[in-house]
Amino acid sequence: MANHKSALKRNRQAQLGRVRNKANRTRVKNVIRAVDEAIGEKSVETAQAALKLAIPAIQKAASKGAFHKKNASRKVSRLTKRVNAFAASA
Fold it and tell me: In the chain, which residue ranges form alpha helices assigned H by DSSP?
């Protein structure tokens, strides 16, 4: 454990950032799960609506630092590709 005042403060800040990042990552997992569930229910409209909600959530998490921007871009790309393939097959 840190002993200096500045190191103690830095530790407190790191804990807060970790909690924020975890919340953002959880939110992203939930929106991705919503898209997957819509695909599983065989509902094209629901899947496309869930995707429209998921993309900004993923990009916002990346802008807050919870994900690297390329990681977020990859998630969006894979989700979009999955929804488009499902819509084309349905």
Answer: 5-40, 44-63, 69-89
Residues 47-87: tens digit of each pLDDT: 999 999 999 999 999 999 999 999 999 999 999 999 999 99
Query: For the whole model, what pTM was predicted?
Result: 0.87
- Contact between 35 and 50 under an 8 Å Cβ cutoff? The reply is yes
Question: How many Å apart are CA 44 and CA 87, to the nearest integer?
Answer: 6
CATH code reported for the domain at 5-89: 1.20.58.110
Give 68's DSSP letter.
-
State how far the alpha carbon of 3 is from the alpha carbons of 7, 9, 66, in Å: 7, 10, 28
